[in-house]
Amino acid sequence: MRTLGSSPMVIAVVSGKGGAGKTSFAASMALCSPPDLPVTAIDCDVEEPNLALLVQEDNHQGAPGMDSTPVTLPIPMVDPERCSRCGICSRTCRFGGVLCFGRSLPTFNELCHGCGACVMACPNGALSETPRPIGVLNRGVIRHRRGVILEGRLLVGMPNPVPVIDRAVEVGLAEGTGSAVVIDAPPGAACPTVAALRQAQGAILITENTPFGRADGEVVAQLLKDMGKPTGLVLNRSGILEEEPPLEGILGSLPLIARLPFSRKVAEGSAQGIPPSELDEHWREAAVSAWEWARRVLS
Predict the structure, then answer these.
(1) What distance lies between CA 183 and its chain's CA centroid?
(2) What DSSP character marks residue 202?
(3) Where exactly are the structural domains of the chain?
(4) What pLDDT is stored for residue 261 in this prediction?
(5) Among 3.30.470.30, 3.10.560.10, 3.40.50.300, 3.40.50.720, what is the CATH number of 9-38+179-298?
(6) What pLDDT, on a 0 to 100 scale, did the predictor assign at position 144?
(7) Parallel/antiparallel/unpaired status of strands 127-141 and 67-78
(8) In angstroms, how far is CA 104 from the centroid of its own chain?
(9) Where is the 4Fe-4S ferredoxin-type domain (predicted)?
(10) Model pLDDT, residue 61
């Protein structure tokens, strides 16, 4: 197992859709890590972050609350006296974030990725950059003082979660308190999920063995394969079908870490902010098994 002082072990917990149990399993892993392995948990589901609800230390017990720092994006601003209205900045932008109409000054919309290409391309030096808030990064303490929880949160109305995810992962990897990082990735297989997975050395894919669960899980499993991420599989709500079909295809090729039976107690506890690992021994054992798999495969 990687130790303090070396690069951290980075594990992402992923799912093909929302509601599969991804955040619940990420919380269970954060709370069931080996005693000698402090953990930094990162909630990269920045459009709907809720990992802190399950793992953050209870403030009523005298623990500090979460500290917030802004996440900003460098947005261009134009000097009208230098701008020649040539339109080069608009033609340079790959994302449609710069608009030029006739001889009017360029305008910058929310599609801007903050890449700085337009600033570099401007022949007159008419463009500079100013920070625009797009999200916040919250930092707290995991229950039982087992490590740190970092929560990325995209501001309402902001269209691009990737810069907030990148910042959350960057800060999480730089944290000196842990020798392991657990990333609660966004669901699905789109750009936010890819951003959360970039720095991960391996992944835990949690899904349900239902037609929809398998279909969505296969898409994410293929993404993980294409990215070269070793992946273990956890089946949640196992047994809810009268006859559970065998796993086939790419899901069937993954090592099965655990099957988690449906638990009403877990569902009710989650609604109250109680992590599953504190209510159900199946979740505790599955989290421990996930760490054992990570020890074998990623160390």
Answers:
(1) 5
(2) E
(3) 9-38+179-298, 71-133
(4) 94
(5) 3.40.50.300
(6) 77
(7) antiparallel
(8) 40
(9) 74-103, 104-132
(10) 44
Mean pLDDT in each 10-residue stretch from start to end of the chain (299 residues)? Answer: 61 95 96 88 96 79 70 96 96 94 91 94 96 95 85 94 96 79 96 97 95 93 98 92 83 96 92 93 97 91
Which fold does the domain 71-133 belong to in CATH? Answer: Alpha-Beta Plaits (3.30.70)
pLDDT reported for residue 5: 45
The three-state secondary structure class of 288 is helix
With H, G, I as helix, E, B as strand and everything else as coil, classify residue 148: strand
Phi-psi region of 98 (alpha: psi -120 to 50; beta: other; left: phi over 0): beta
Tokens 């065998």 locate to 246
Q: What gap in Å lies between CA 83 and CA 12, rounded to an integer?
A: 46
Per-residue CA distances from 102 to 90, 112, 126, 291 (Å): 12, 20, 17, 60
The predicted structure's pLDDT at residue 2: 43
Residue type at position 173: L
